[in-house]
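Q: Could you fold this chain for me?
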Amino acid sequence: MHTIKSVGVLSVAKVMGAIDAVLGHLFLPFFLLISLVASMAPHPNRPSPFAPFVGIAFAIFAPVFYGAMGFIFGAIGAFLYNLLAKWMGGIEMRLESAAPVSPLVPTQP
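A: Sure. Below is the predicted structure, expressed as structure tokens.
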């Protein structure tokens, strides 16, 4: 068994920020579709002619916002993990190494 005693706070924050930014891009078509449907719906009391564009602005801003929140909460989570791993011992993992396969040596069936 191997134990993860600590993780790099900045590295976890960068990876979580990137993952959440990608998720923001995956949700982008749904935000645009909702904005399109909302702009086509009849609404006599629409407060502003620019109201349908709020959904478009949100869809463009969402990946940036998700990435920033992923970075911040990834850093907080990694920092808390490092603190708690000192007291609780960290996460135990069982690792198995695979034998390297050379492309020049044929394998036995």
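A (continued): Residues 2-43+51-93 form one domain.
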